[in-house]
């Protein structure tokens, strides 16, 4: 029976949500968290502030949703261990390449600098960023290694600790240098370093 009520989740609602997140991305990345204006985000997304609050609840929740979407768009941390996706080596290399590409993007580097400054006065902003981005990445990489252990692709180990070891080898000095160098990162060089890091990791942890 047609009650005349509109469905709760219409395509227009999804489009509006994406428009808000697009506007939030631009505003947060250019202004940082503290200086970001919900009015500016609402204007850019062509919605009201009330709509933003209705959909996200708070500036903090909007910030977290924006970071989560940015990571998901790049595929960071979303790789699952599956026989259709190649060997553990291939999957770890894919993870490393995606993570490095993401971390060396100019707008990500600039945004992290803003966040670092803001954290001095507002540590909670750092927690929001860590929970929505880096900690999720670590969680996903740990899960990937746990499934690799179950598949006997690597030896049993403390997978959270092993994820930290691998991640440290993957980023090396490259991400640090990218933050302060005027030169753009050499992506071919970064990719070569990823394969070397994964091979050394598997030599230590391999099954």
Describe the structure.
- The model has no long low-confidence stretch (mean pLDDT 84).
- The radius of gyration is 20 Å and the shape is elongated.
- It starts with 10 loop residues before the first helix and ends with a helix.
- Helix 1 (11-35) crosses helix 4, helix 1 (11-35) packs across helix 6 (106-121) and helix 9 (159-171) runs antiparallel to helix 11 (187-205).
- The relative contact order is 0.11.
- The chain is mainly α and 207 residues long.
- Helices cover 75% and strands 0% of the residues.
- It has 11 helices and no strands.
Query: What is the chains' assembly state?
Result: single chain
Mean pLDDT: 84
Order of helices and strands: HHHHHHHHHHH
- The structure class reads mainly alpha
Largest sheet: none
What gap, in angstroms, lies between the N and C termini?
Answer: 59 Å
Percent in strands: under 5%
How many E-type strands?
A: 0
The low-pLDDT segments are: none
Count of individual helical segments? 11
Name the helicity range: over 70%
- Could you say which overall geometry the principal axes of the C-alpha atoms support? elongated
What Rg, in angstroms, do the CA atoms define?
A: 20 Å
């Amino acid at each position: 029976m047609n009650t005349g009520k509109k469905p709760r989740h219409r395509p227009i609602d999804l489009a509006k949500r994406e428009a808000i997140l697009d506007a939030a991305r631009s505003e947060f990345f250019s202004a940082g968290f503290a200086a970001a204006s919900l009015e500016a985000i609402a204007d850019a997304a062509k919605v009201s502030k009330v709509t933003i609050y209705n959909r996200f609840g708070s500036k903090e929740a909007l910030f977290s949703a924006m970071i989560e979407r940015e990571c998901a768009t790049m595929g960071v941390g979303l790789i699952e261990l599956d026989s259709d996706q190649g060997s553990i080596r291939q999957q770890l290399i894919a993870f490393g390449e995606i993570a490095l590409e993401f971390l060396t993007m100019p707008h990500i580097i600039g945004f992290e600098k803003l966040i670092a400054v803001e954290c001095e006065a507002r540590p909670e902003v750092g927690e929001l960023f860590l929970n929505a981005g880096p900690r999720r990445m670590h969680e996903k990489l740990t899960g990937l290694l746990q499934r690799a252990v179950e598949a006997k692709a690597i030896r049993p180990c403390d997978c959270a600790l092993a994820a930290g070891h691998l991640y440290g080898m993957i980023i090396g000095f490259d991400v640090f240098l990218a933050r302060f160098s005027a030169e753009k990162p050499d992506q071919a060089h970064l990719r070569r370093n990823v394969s070397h890091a994964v091979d050394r990791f598997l030599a230590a942890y391999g099954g």
